[in-house]
Task: structure prediction
Amino acid sequence: MNKNIDFESLYNILREISTSLHSGAHVKDILETLVMKSAQMFKAKGALIRILNPKTKHLDLGASYGLSDQYLSKGPAFRKEFVMDLCRQNRVLIIRDILNDPFVQYPKEAWEEGIRMIVDAPITYKDDVIGILRIYFDEPRELSEQELQYLILIAERGAAVIQRAQLLEIQESRYDQLALQTEKLSALGRMAAGIAHEINNPLAGVLLYSTNLLKKAPEEGPFREGLEIIIQETLRCKTIIQDLLEFSRPSEPKAFLTNINKVVVKVLHLLDNEFRLRHIRLEIDLSKLLPEILIDENQIEQILVNLLLNAIQAIEDQGRVTVRTYVTPDRKNVAMEVADTGCGISPENMSKIFEPFFSTKPKGTGLGLAVTYSIVEKHGGKIYAFSEPKQGTRFIVEFPIPRES
Ligand SMILES: Nc1ncnc2c1ncn2[C@@H]1O[C@H](COP(=O)(O)OP(=O)(O)O)[C@@H](O)[C@H]1O
Ligand SMILES: [Mg+2]
Result:
């Protein structure tokens, strides 16, 4: 009896997976097809795919075929270290001694499930393990070298599917993040603009009278001290109000075709001292091939100052800030990136950082990023934030390249 698989059925599986990959089918469905077809091709009892969750480092079930719920509910039957090992050797592992092999975590359950042999193929992407394809047989059998090669081919397809799933997830969460911000910011922005206008006038009055009084105050004493504090604090309010007005001002940027590197160089020069004083290493990587984009130089300066000050403030002791500019891979945008090795942002704060007045700093105004967001938006651009608590934060600002450039 010939149990070997033929090239044609393998070809059909690979083709089916490729087609569904490009047709926009759901990742889950594609993985289901993949495990089902693999099991059928090897005339096996069942098969499953587990995907390494980058956050929890667990191997989550991606899809399974031919296995009872009871067996699956036992949880991942293997640990990441083991998969890593497998991956490092880049080989397929065949387990024949179900009851005694250390790689079978639930031997008794596996035996009761009728499993007599297991074949594992690592799913890798760029030398990193991202999952595993496991085939279950109900009787021991020999696998030819060619069959093992086939299995690796299928696992490679699996890698493409998982890659796509993860990409989609990132895109979706980026979109959710953006939609949420836009909605919140427009409501808050309208309110803030109203309040800012109302407060601006009385504030100017307070400042005028207190400055006048100061001129008449005695050289020393509590009277002068008090007035100085009033003036100082009023000036602080004015800055906040100005930021607020900036944030909500509907005016269009006065944009000219500019190489963004020019702005970056100017701002870095401006903040040079700040970096030196705090012993923060600054790494600069500006693309020499940037097309000019339509930007309001003053406003972009403001964005970069905001991002850099935040980066500096996030670094307690030593650390590194990296500023990069480049053209995005799709060649549609110029990107400016500010990354730091600072304290990072907790996941629950991530959705709030662009809100006006959200600040975790004792003296923060919480307006830097709100203003930044609104300037980026007025430029038709996008801003993304990525952060890992205690590791650092990265902001990417993208501006569209005009068609004529
Ligand atoms: N690079 C960064 N690293 C860590 N946290 C940041 C960073 N940038 C912004 N944040 C967080 O976002 C909040 C809002 O930033 P921002 O709008 O500039 O206001 P502020 O700097 O006045 O607090 C900060 O208080 C901080 O919690
Ligand atoms: Mg700030």
Remarks:
- The pocket of magnesium ion (ligand 2) is lined by residues 306, 309-310, 368 (CB under 6 Å).
- Residues 145-216 form the longest helix (72 residues).
- The radius of gyration is 30 Å.
